[in-house]
Amino acid sequence: MSRKSATRWMDPEKLKAKAVEKGVITQEEAEAMSHGQALRLIFAPGFSTAEKVSDVSGRGVGMDVVRSNIEKLKGVIELESAVGKGSTVKIKIPLTLAILPTLHCKVGSERYGIPLASVKETVRMPCSEVQTIRGKSVVKLREEILPLAFLREVLDVESAPLPELCVVVLQVGAQRLGCVVDDTIGQEEVVIKPLDAIKHICPTPFFSGAAILGNGTITLIVDVSELMRLVHAGGGPQEDISIDNRQLTIDNSKDVFMALLVEDGGAEQYALPIKPIKKIENIPASEIEIVGGRKVVRNDGNVLPVVHLYDITNFPPSKPESDVYLVIMGEDAERTGLVVNGLRGIKPIDRREAEDCFSSGGIAFSMVLGGRVTLVIADGTVFQRSRDYLNSQRASSAMEAALVSQKRGRILVADDSAVARESIRKFLLESGFDVVLAVDGKDALQKLSGIDLVVTDLEMPEMNGYELTRAIKKEHPGLPIIMVTTRDGEEDRLEGLKAGVDDYQAKLDGLKLVHSVQRHIKR
Fold it and tell me: What percent of the residues of the chain are helix, what percent strand, and what percent coil, each to the nearest 5?
């Protein structure tokens, strides 16, 4: 739930001054506060900006009670405010806590679950990087001072000293915390059982519930809000990313593997094998640069080569985004990034449910997942496209230069898929061709006037690609026809040749299609 006011706002400086006046914080603490921390002062017990105390205001308990009640429901309240521009209050409350995706971690000989909704990433670092500030353990993570909570100490679990730290970075609203565990085991969706029945016997302040795993063992689920409250972790205002930015070790079977679901704003979603993924970050799209013909971003002090999702799928995004997600993959020597517009979560992918209707190029196979067509990206595709990007850019530039000196043509594109039509149209327009669109075979027959070449899909309602080809060749035997399809087996090719098709091209490879159009265009 979100409520916004364009005429009311909070001044962080006035809030800090009032908090110092009432003794809620010291002057030194006020000077060290960030913008977000200053706004959250309104939740502090005893804090109020009212000049007079009345029955309904001035006692400093209202917003404190609001926050406490929301947190009891496992919810989060967030504040955004700019002087002269307005304020926004966001309240997030989970619909259910019955089934919870969790990251399972090892501490000593015990296993604990952490809700994935609060996990931002996992990082490993030498123990020597831990510092002590004001009696608290912290580490510096990408220019951020991150407070630490050693889970073995919080839960009083015996654990042997480790050569390095395994830090699970947690975030609830604007607060961030590094939770130190012995190791991460993997992720699993579990059914949560409440602990209310045993709380009067054994207090469980740091656990929100328990789960029985498939092997019969019981895992306690860490209450991230209570952990935050213990450490008093604070941070500036940051955008929540509704995906767990982390490195997971998954024990994949032969047919089932875990995949990150991503999207670019279209009807389709894409599945990316999670094994090579190291972390995910939310970045401004403006940070992506082109250096020496290659897309790069500056990440952790290094220059990271990247490719966009549409470089693999050849489907242009429905609309540009100001902020994008950077999926960082691979080891240091071959680390690269995939840029996507949206994240959908993590799901198991079963190869036995695969369909081959979209198997082409960098797409291994397709399937229906959660009611949406899902294209599964083949292993190694992101790395290969990153290596090939520079050469493909040069080839594309050379091809465009050659096309400029040649006569352009008028192309008719027939496809019942709006996404496919738009993708093909984009590539042809960028190469200088005029494009006419048709929604099926019958529509295409009405638009043949002045056409120099036809690009058609195979499977269409009313009239399929074979039928359209026969009809065109009967009246216009010299008109070139290129069929774009995912069905490129020998039998399909033979039937296409019999119908009069001049060339077959994969549906997702726009560069090869443009080359084919260049070769076959009617002069």
Answer: 30, 35, 35
Mean pLDDT for 110-132 is 87
The DSSP secondary-structure symbol of 315 reads P
Other CB atoms closer than 10 Å to residue 308's CB: what's the count? 21
* Tokens coding 29: 């603490």
Report helix, strand or coil for 146.
strand
- The continuous run of DSSP H or E covering 206 comes out as none
Token pair, residue 406, equals 């040649």
Six token digits for residue 485 = 């399809």
pLDDT digits (tens, 9 = 90+) for 470-503: 999 999 999 999 998 877 667 777 788 888 998 8
Considering only CA atoms, which of 201, 54, 6, 183 is closest in space to residue 106? Answer: 183
Q: Which CATH number fits domain 406-520: 3.40.1050.10, 3.30.1360.40, 3.40.50.2300, 3.40.50.970?
A: 3.40.50.2300
CATH class of 99-231: mainly beta
Write out the two tokens for 364.
């291994």
Closest CA to 502 of 471, 474, 469, 468: 469
Q: Which of 282, 264, 308, 81 is nearest to 171 (CA)?
A: 282
Per-residue pLDDT of 245-291, as tens digits, reads: 333 333 334 567 778 888 877 667 888 887 788 788 888 888 888 76
- Which stretches of 160-245 are assigned E, i.e. beta strand? 164-172, 175-181, 183-191, 207-212, 218-222
Kindly report the CA angle at 437 between 434 and 439, in degrees rounded to 5?
170
- Cα separation, 180 vs 186, in Å, equals 16
One DSSP character per residue, 245-263 reads ---------SSEEEEEEEE
Q: Please write down the long-range contacts of 357-363, taking CB distance under 8 Å and 24 or more positions apart.
A: 357/486, 357/487, 358/486, 358/507, 358/508, 359/486, 360/486, 360/506, 360/507, 360/508, 360/509, 361/312, 361/314, 361/506, 361/508, 361/509, 362/312, 362/313, 362/508, 363/312, 363/313, 363/508
- C-alpha span between 123 and 281 (Å, rounded): 13
Residue 76, strand partner residues: 92
> Which neighbouring-strand residues pair with 411?
435, 453
User: Which of 310, 307, 293, 266 has its CA nearest to residue 509?
Assistant: 310
- For domain 256-388, give the fold: OB fold (Dihydrolipoamide Acetyltransferase, E2P) (2.40.50)
